[in-house]
Amino acid sequence: MSEVLDLLATEGFELTPGVRARPLFGAGAMLNLLDFEPNATVAAHSHPHEQLGLVIEGRLVMRIDSVEHELGRGGAYVIPGGVEHAAWTTDMRCRVLDVFRPVREDYRERVAGP
């Protein structure tokens, strides 16, 4: 099934306070556009999905498998499934594009609502 849309115009959902997620679902993978407010945090977690990401604007600090990385515009990462990671911003906004494989059905459920 084909789909074309303006991802920035979608409502998405609040992933955590100060972080808005706007996912786009394919059959086997998904994009997720994240907007971080200043001083927002995604707590340490892991999931079985492979995750690739790209910082589009701003700065993001990531802790991947206990190692901290500060990423600016153009900074990219690959996180294998099952690896613990966290992300946060300091005093500026940040926009990140993530790719997950396979699709995160928990995100699809959050967009669809109860």
Structure characterization notes:
The chain is mainly beta. The protein has one domain (30-112): Jelly Rolls. 7% of the residues lie in helices and 51% in strands. It is built from one helix and ten strands. It has one helix at 105-112; strands at 13-16, 19-25, 30-36, 41-45, 50-58, 60-64, 67-71, 76-79, 85-88, 94-101. Strands 1-2-3-10-5-8 form a six-stranded antiparallel beta sheet, with helices on one face. The two termini are 24 Å apart. 23% of the residues are buried. The model has no long low-confidence stretch (mean pLDDT 96).
| CATH fold group | Jelly Rolls
Structural class comes to mainly beta
Largest sheet: 6 strands, antiparallel
Strand order of the largest sheet: 1-2-3-10-5-8
Give a concise summary.
By secondary structure, the chain is mostly beta strands. The chain has one helix spanning 105-112, and strands at residues 13-16, 19-25, 30-36, 41-45, 50-58, 60-64, 67-71, 76-79, 85-88, 94-101.
Write the layout of secondary structure elements.
Blueprint: E1 13-16, E2 19-25, E3 30-36, E4 41-45, E5 50-58, E6 60-64, E7 67-71, E8 76-79, E9 85-88, E10 94-101, H1 105-112
Give the key terms:
mainly beta; six-stranded antiparallel β-sheet; four-stranded antiparallel β-sheet; Jelly Rolls
